[in-house]
Specification:
By secondary structure, the protein is an all-alpha fold. It has helices at 2-17, 19-22, 27-46, 72-116, 121-124, 132-150, 152-166, 170-189, 196-203, 209-231, 248-257, 262-283, 287-304, 313-316, 321-327, 330-348, 356-367, 371-382, 387-397, 408-420, 429-438, 442-448, 450-471, and strands at residues 52-53, 59-60, 350-351, 354-355. The longest helix has 45 residues, at 72-116.
Amino acid sequence: MLSAVIACFVIGYVVIVFEHPLRLDKTVPALLMGAICWALLSLGFNSGALDVVDSYGELFSLGGHGVEGLTGAAADSAHHDAEHGFSGTLLHHLGKTAEILIFLIGAMTIVEIVDLHRGFDIIKGWISTRSKKKLLWIVGILGFILSAIIDNLTATIVLVTLLRKLVPDREQRLWYVALIVIAANAGGAWSPIGDVTTTMLWIGKRVTTAGLMEYLILPSLVCFIVPFLIASFLKPFQGNMITPELESEEGVTESTERLLSSKTMLFLGLGMIVFVPIFKTITHLPPYIGMMLSLGVVWLVSEYIHPEENFDDERKAAYSAHKALSRIEMSSILFFLGILMAVAALETVAVGEVGALRAVADQLRAVIPNQDIVIIVLGFLSAIIDNVPLVAASMGMYDIANFPEDSKLWHFIAYSAGTGGSMLIIGSAAGVAAMGMERIDFIWYLKKIGWLAFIGFAAGALVFLAIEAFFNPIVAS
C-alpha cells in the first residue's frame, strides 16, 4: 500500500510536469493526486497495512504498533486513539493548507481591485526614457520591488502588460520580459509575501520577516543585479527605441483614461499588503488574519470611492470587489490545494518510525553529507519541477526541532527554490505567466537567458553562504 501512495504521487507529478504536451491543466492531476493519496492512505491505515505519523512525530497504527497484545476495552481504546490520531492529522494538514490558500486569495483579490481601478497605470507614467539600457534597469528595479510586495507572478503580469505599451517590437520586448522573470523571482525570494514558497515558509513558522530580509536581501540583489549588469552590455539593449506612449498626443490619451481613484487604490492596496507582516509582528496572529483585515479595508474603500466624475450605481459593478473576485485564478488556488495535500500525505505515511519525507531526508544526509549541496540541487530541481511541492516536501523532510525558525537551512531553501526557477522559463510561476502572455519559446529562453539566470543564481548563493559563514561561523551545515 505504501508503494501505491508513492506511485500515485509520482504519476500525478509526471502529468503535472508534462501539462503542456498533454494539454491538460495541472490543477486536474493535482486535485486527483491529493484526493487519491489520502484515500489510499486511509484504506491502508484502516486495514492495518499502513501506519501514520502526526505533526508531533507520534506514530499511530491499527495493525500492530501500540495495539498488539491488547484485548477488550484496552484494545477498543487503542483503536479509538489511533483513528482519532489519523483524523486529527488530516485536519491539521488541511488547516495549514487553508491558511496559505486564504492568504493567497486575499492578496490576489486586493491586487485585482487595484487593477480594476487602473492603479498600475500610475507606474507607467513614471517611465520616461528612450534608452534601451535605462529601460532595462527601470523595469528590472520595478520588478524586483513590486514582486516583494504583490508577489512575483502578479508583478510579472503587470510589467509585461506595461511593456506591451512601451516596446511595440515583439522581438525586442521578449528580452525585457525574460529578464523581468529573473528580477521578479529574485525580488520575491527575500519577502514573506513575494513568492508562494516564502509565504509557505513564513506561515509554517520556518522563517520570519526580519530574518528573510536580513539574510536574503543582499543575495537576492546580487541574483538580480549580476544578470542585468551583463545583459546591459548585450546588443538587444544598445541604443534608443521609439516609445509611442512618450509622444505628447498619446500622453494626453493616457492621462484622460486614468481614473480618479487610480492613485488612491494603488497606494492603499500596496500599503495594506505590506501591512500584513507588520500586523503579524504586533499581534502574533497568523498572517491570514492580517490579510483578512487588509482585504476588508481595501474592499471598504472600494465600495465608496468614485473612480469617475459621473459615477452612478450602474457603473459601480465594474469596479467592485465582486468583479475582482471573479478575476482571481481559482485554478491556481485549487492546484495549491491538491499539491499541498498530496505532499502532506507523504509526510504522514510512516516508513519505519518516521514519515516518508523524513525518511528521504535521512537518506539524503547519508548520501550527500553537505546540506548546502542538497539545497543547491533543490534550486536546480525547482527549474524543472514546481517549487511549491519541493518546498512543501522540504518542510516535511526537516524537523523544526532540529532546524528552528530562521535557521540557515530555511533561508537557503527560500533563496534556492525562489530564484533557481529562473533558469528555465517553466521553472516558476512568473516564467510560466510570461511564457503564456508573450508565447516565449522554451529553447529560445534556454539559449538566450538561461545562462544569465544561472550566473545570477550562483552568485547570489555564494553571497548567501559567505554571509552565513561570517555571521554564524560555528553553525554547521
